[in-house]
Amino acid sequence: MTYATATNLLDQFGAEEIAQRADRGMPRMVTAEMLKTAAAAGSLAGYTTDEQAATVAALTLIESKLLDADSTINGYLATRYTVPLIAVPRLVMVAACDLARYALYDDMATDTVTERNKNVIKQLEAIAKGLISLGVDVSGNRPTANDAAQISSTTPVFRRGNAEGFI
């Protein structure tokens, strides 16, 4: 189980950007629509054999980068949690997407992508130190929510029967 899927990555940063980064061939053949279809396990039958192969290669690269991101995240989280996490908090999913996006850029990352990657590493370090909580227990499960109102009281000090004329 990965912390983020290819679909999560496409939704987070836009299929067009990710298609441009994941298509390593020349000329570029993978379009955003082709990548969305492949990520959703849809049929690529309407495309040429070369386009299908390029799309599969791009999706394979994306999934590889997402697995690398999972390994990085697990390296930090293992100090506090049992990994892999069973319930994936959104913070972890977004972190996996940021790490994978940075990896897809290779050595051509923009300042924004680089800054986001640095911030994710800082967050992971803070999680490892216990400064940020993921909202899961040490085994990686979400704790059962007991957020219903609870009222607890002892016997009242002043009651009508004991007031003797005061109430």
How would you sum up this structure, described in words?
With 167 residues, the chain is an all-alpha fold. It has one domain. Helices cover 52% and strands 0% of the residues. It is built from six helices and no strands. The chain has helices at 6-13, 15-22, 32-39, 49-77, 90-104, 111-129. α3 crosses α4, α4 (49-77) packs across α5 (90-104) and α5 (90-104) packs across α6 (111-129). The model is unreliable at 143-148 (pLDDT under 50).
Provide a short characterization of the protein structure.
The protein is an all-alpha fold.
User: What shape does the CA trace take?
Assistant: elongated
Helix vs. strand class? mainly alpha
Assembly state here? single chain
**Total DSSP helices:** 6
Euclidean distance between termini CA atoms: 65 Å
